[in-house]
Design brief:
Nucleotidyltransferase, domain 5, Substrate Binding Domain Of DNAk, Chain A, domain 1, 3 domains, 6-stranded mixed beta sheet, 10 helices, globular
């Protein structure tokens, strides 16, 4: 009898999701020095990284096409063309197809299945260890859609989510130190779109080194001529970089062109490295998948504090094996949209739960009292409750509480409570 050896799960994949296209980058684990991620291209030898975010069902045979094939068949008679899938997901919209409503998350799953099929000759699905999805904003709606993708595609690999801010940080964390400290400037602009200035700054006087982000959004770079655009961009750069030292700068997107960037690029190149490209976020997401899978010592030297992070430790003081101790529920530093913890408690005296909230920025822990109104008074005043902690925003803690009774002696009452806390 012959036994096939299971495929080694060695690829770490990053997928950048945008309204009009997606990009996919990948790297491999098992190397002493992580390999720079490679971005999938639709045309070998060319930097055709953008896979149009669109589906099209052609009339003949009812086949569904994705990406560039969807675009090429969009105008055919009887074709069902669906662009802007990610926008539909964010809106929570459904699409009417053949007299039935199809959820946008299901369409996203179909689109991503075909994208993964496109690159299967290089990165077989069965050899993927983890996928990190990234987008400009990562919220509960996006995470729910990605969970739907995971279920519909029966993905057996690990699946993670992060915002562009985290992908940017992950990418820079894996670059030489000389390129990231004491700061990095990233400018992103698609043709005719808004200009995003992202500054990643490092406080080298703390241990671990604290990294934090500053963002400014401009409506665009305007001018009737290339020279006027160049002057406008130069003024923005001078304003944003004034008084700060930047080790490197990155220019992302189709809105930048060497044809008109003269004085602005010359200014950027003074004393720092400058890079142009369009795939930093998907590469950063691939690095993020790697860092979630294989611990790197560089992670221990840095702490990234951004707007997606929970900034308060949430726990309680309790008796653990007979001794007073602090028991943590949620640790500061976790992405708020990934915060998820369930714990069972035994209340030995009354109907009160005292949470300890300690800010990451320091200071004394504050006590937050939760009173479970209507909790049955049982013999010995003993009750068991289940707490489920999640977050609805970066500063909003949500707790679902359920009475579990106490074994066969005291059956559960079915009572439930909900508590919202600003942290």
């Amino acid at each position: 009898m012959l036994f096939e050896r299971p495929a080694e799960r060695r690829f770490l994949v990053g997928i950048d999701l945008r309204d009009d296209y997606c990009q996919i980058s990948f790297t491999e684990k098992g190397r002493t020095t992580p390999k720079e991620p490679v971005t999938f291209t639709m045309v070998k030898g060319e930097e055709k990284f953008d896979i149009p975010m669109a589906l099209c069902r052609v009339k003949e045979g009812g086949r569904w096409l994705a990406g560039p094939e969807a675009l090429s068949h969009a105008g055919e008679e009887g074709a069902v063309y669906i662009p802007g899938i990610l926008s539909l997901v964010r809106e929570g919209s459904a699409v009417r197809i053949d007299s039935r409503d199809v959820d946008a998350s299901a369409l996203l799953a179909m689109y991503l299945k075909r994208c993964l099929d496109m690159m299967s000759a290089t990165v077989p699905l069965g050899e993927i260890a983890a996928i990190m999805f990234c987008s400009r904003e990562m919220d509960k709606k996006m995470i729910g859609a990605i969970q739907t993708v995971r279920e519909r595609l029966s993905l057996s690999c690990s699946v993670y989510c992060e915002s562009y801010a985290n992908s940017y940080y992950n990418y820079m964390l894996m670059q030489p130190q000389v390129l990231r400290e004491p700061g990095v400037l990233l400018a992103e602009m698609q043709k005719g779109g808004r200009l995003y200035i992202e500054k990643l700054l490092f406080n080298q006087h703390t241990r671990p080194i604290v990294a934090y982000r500053e963002e400014k959004i401009y409506p665009g770079i305007f001018g009737d001529t290339g020279r006027e655009q160049d002057d406008a961009f130069l003024q923005i750069l001078q304003k944003e970089m004034d008084g700060r030292i930047f080790a490197s700068a990155y220019l992302l997107g189709s809105g930048f062109s060497r044809d008109w960037m003269k004085k602005s690029v010359s200014f950027l190149c003074r004393g720092r490295r400058v890079f142009m490209g369009n795939n930093l976020y998907s590469k950063g997401a691939a690095y993020g998948a790697l860092l979630r899978t294989v611990h790197s010592e560089v992670q221990d030297r840095y702490y990234f504090l951004d707007s997606n992070k929970l900034r308060t430790n949430v726990g309680m003081r309790a008796l653990i094996r007979g001794e007073a101790a602090y028991y943590p529920f949620l640790d500061a530093g976790v992405n708020w949209y990934e915060a998820d913890k369930t714990a069972d408690l035994i209340l030995e005296d009354g109907n009160e739960i005292h949470l300890a909230l300690k800010p990451l920025t320091g200071g004394e822990a504050s006590d937050f009292l939760i009173r479970l109104e209507g909790l049955p008074v049982r013999e010995g005043r003993i009750a068991r409750v289940r707490l489920h902690f999640t977050m609805t925003a970066q500063d909003k803690l949500h707790i679902d509480i359920e009475d579990l009774g106490f074994g066969e002696i005291f059956p559960k009452s079915g009572l439930k409570w909900v508590q919202e806390i600003s942290v």
